[in-house]
C-alpha cells in the first residue's frame, strides 16, 4: 500500500483519502497500486456499499500523474527504470477501467485542482459515478501543454461532451470551473466547501439505500450557485461548435485567427503555446475515441503513450514546465504547418500484437 493513500470504512462506506499535498496528490505507481488493491478488495466485500474518494487538502483532488517521475525515468541513461514507466501507464489505465465499471456507487469529491490522471480516477462510468464539484474546482485535461495527449480515458469522456467542447478542452488544455464542468457533463452536483463537513457527517449517519440519491438531495439547495446554463462554455458554445469542428488542427487555428472575438483570440493564443504535433494527435485521438468503447480507448492510449515517449515530445514539455522551468519548450515540429499526417498516424500504429497488448483483457 501507499503512505499517500489512506483508507477507512464508516457506515459501510469505503473512504479513500489522497494525502500527498505537497505534490497536489500527483499519482505515483505506488499510489496507483494502492488504489487498485483497495478497490478490488472492496468490490466483492458485502460490508462496503459505496466508495467515496477525496483529498486531505482543499488545494487539489489530484493534479495528475507524477510527471517529474516520467522525466527522470525517460531521460535516465541507461534507463534502468524504464519498466516502471511502462508499468505506471499500464496499471493506471487498468485502474481507470476498474473505476469506470465499478459495481458499487463511486463518489468523487473533485475539490481544488483535478487534472489529467485526477480526471481518470474521478470520471467513473454512468452506472456507478457521482462527481461533486465545488467553488474551488479547477478542472482540465492540459496534456498538450507538456507534449502529451489527454489520456486516462480522455479519448472516451472528452469525445462525449456536448458538441465540440471536448475538442476545445483537449486542444487548449483550458482550465474550467464548477459550472463549466456541470455543463460539459464532467460533473454531477455542486456543493460549496463550507458544506463539506455537513456532507461527510450526513454520509456517516445516513441509512439511505441509495447513497448517490442522498448526496443529490443534500446538494439540491446549492444548485443555483453553479448552474450549467451560466457557464463560460455554455455562453461560448456556438463559437466552440463552429470553430472546433473538423479533422484538421491548422484549419481550426485558421478559423480562430479569422474571428475577432476575445474568446477565440485567447483560445488561439493558448494553442500557440501547445505542442503542434500533440494537438494534431489529440484531435485524431478524440475523433477515433468517439466511436470506441472504454476498453478500446484505453488500449489505443496505451499504444499512443509508448509512441509519445519514443518521440520525446513529452520529455521536452516536462523539462520546460517543471525541470528547467523556462516555459520555452522546443517543440518538434515547431509549427502546425510542419506537422504531417504521417507523423500523426505514427502515434496510432500498433505496438503489440493484439494477443500481447498489456491491456488485452479489458472488456467493454
From TrEMBL:
It comes from Undibacterium rivi. This is Enoyl-CoA hydratase/isomerase family protein. It comes from the Bacteria. Gene3D superfamilies: 2-enoyl-CoA Hydratase, Chain A, domain 1 (3.90.226.10). NCBIfam families: PRK05617.1. SUPFAM superfamilies: ClpP/crotonase. It holds the Pfam family ECH_2. Keywords: Hydrolase. Transmembrane segments: none annotated. Residues 13-348 form the Enoyl-CoA hydratase/isomerase domain. PANTHER family: 3-HYDROXYISOBUTYRYL-COA HYDROLASE, 3-HYDROXYISOBUTYRYL-COA HYDROLASE-RELATED.
